[in-house]
Amino acid sequence: MNRQAQSAVLFLLGAALWHAGTTDLYLRYVKAGLRPLLLAAAVVLVAAAVASVGYGWRAARRGAATGPGSGSESEYESEYEYEYESGPECGPQSGSESGSGRPAGSAGHGHHAPHVSWLLLLPLLALILVAPPALGSYSATRTGTALQQPLAYPALPATDPLRLSVVDYAGRAVYGRGRTLEGRRVQVTGFVAVDRAGTPYLVRMALNCCAADAQPVKIGLIGAIPPVLQPDTWLTVTGTYTPRTAKDPVNGGPIPFLRVTAATPVPVPHDPYDESWNT
Amino acid sequence: MALTKSAPQEATPHDEPGGSAPTGPQRRVTSPLVLILVLLLLVTFQGPVRRALSAPVMQSWTTVFVAVVVQALPFLVLGVLLSAAIAVYVPPSFFARALPGRPALAVPVAGLAGAVLPGCECASVPVAGALVRRGVTPAAALAFLLSAPAINPVVLTATAVAFPREPRMVVARLAGGLLVACVMGWLWQRLGRTDWLRPPRHAPHEGATRGETFWNSVRHDVMHAGGFLVLGATAAATLKAIAPQSWLRTAAENPVVSVLALAVLAVVLSICSEADAFVAASLTQFSLTARLAFLVVGPMIDLKLFAMQAGTFGRAFAVRFAPATFVLAVAVSVLVGTVLL
Lengths: 279, 341
Fold this sequence. Notes:
The structure holds two protein chains of two kinds.
Chain A: H1 3-22, H2 35-65, H3 72-85, H4 121-130, H5 137-142, E1 162-164, H6 166-174, E2 185-194, E3 200-206, E4 215-223, E5 234-247, E6 254-265
Parallel strand pairs in A: 1-2, 4-6
Antiparallel strand pairs in A: 2-3, 2-5, 3-4, 5-6
Helix pairs in contact in A: 1-2, 1-4
Chain B: H1 31-44, H2 46-52, H3 56-89, H4 92-98, H5 103-116, H6 121-133, H7 138-151, H8 153-162, H9 167-191, H10 210-241, H11 245-253, H12 255-269, H13 276-282, H14 288-300, H15 303-313, H16 315-340
């Protein structure tokens, strides 16, 4: 890849990051706290692309001024190539960073990025064209529940119904034995996942940093479950605490249950992941 | 402007930017042309591409893949900026003056200097090459080569972010990385032979001005390290989305196998050291010691580093240095993991 192509890829990459960072798109992949870094990286990438094109033009103009046979980028590159071929003591990499990363013996130009750079097109296209959704029921059923014991059970507000996150409900139900939930009507939002045995779960993926480390926290559903449950549908479920628990078939982790009284489909929330563990 | 891949000597410079047909005797497909074609093809066929990626496995794969890249890119850019600034604005002679004359002392000092100088492993190989060129004793330069990507502030910050509940992981990584770097430096001093080394000669990215050199270095490092980052993300996403959980669980159950499995995984995945902590954090089935081995081995030796070391220092060097580093890194992580974790 030569200088122009590299600049184009850098620019597109910066633009894609900027797009992801300025919309909610980035929340499908990384935690909310990474946003300033994403935007800063986007600015640097675009600046690098602009600077690169600018210096390329300047070098070309310099070359044009000094007469024929010199200048223009090809001159640079042929110079590097010449040095590369010029002697055995000058290693195959010409000592330039661009050469490193390839096995000795592969040809290199000072201004050519190695072939591996082409791979940068993959995330670019995945982000722009596909924009894959946040992790859903496929990952949730393959991965065991990651419920951790809460440090404390803060007093809950006296609202009705009581809005709780999946992680909060599951922690209180399993480790707090439901003491703080008795007699309350709770409302929980998550997506539907159905395991091999047909048990429906309400799931929220909990995130430490990015989707690569996302792990599900699951609540089993019993009671007035909607007759048709489409996996990956987002639901707000209203129900009451039930002492029933089960073991996750994947890792044996505890799964509490919720007795459903009503369930309404809702749009995918602003941040599809639960980030309460980050604080 | 001429855009040929193997640029022939041109009689006249071309003026129209983006012109794709050089007048030279070798007509070649140029990279901007290929780039435009690839983009056009993919935009044209985005429907089938989307459909192919809509299966749950592929969707989950793509999400993890994009997530690893998006999450690591800011750290990569930060590291590349800092390493370019150091490469351009700090003269290499400074390091030669700053190091003690006795090699045995210079090794730990260079190891510690690596902890202060940020940059990922892709940047540290050329810097170490430059150090050797400027007369720094090879043992010290190698200690720097190993320690800089493993324990610099950017990497340690990323580790702390990735392991919010395990601050000991940061300490263990620092201790393990520094120990391996120093021991390898001393080993080289005792056993190493200069004729294994083939120091590079040519200064990288010379531009007309410092600004040009700086941006050339940034552009190159992002393209280069970014490519390897994508490679690592591909492997990580495949592992996460396709490999059955039972494999990893089986490997994770045995303490010896788990350490070896993650050490080998670190070599194969070749993840940039600025991003590997997040991958390690996601391998929750494994013990902290095994994940420490992943974090200590990864920045010191992996497939892409081996290629880079062979390119910069010569193959005779790399085939001796890389296996020794691997064995030592695994041993040290087990030791540090037992003591600290």
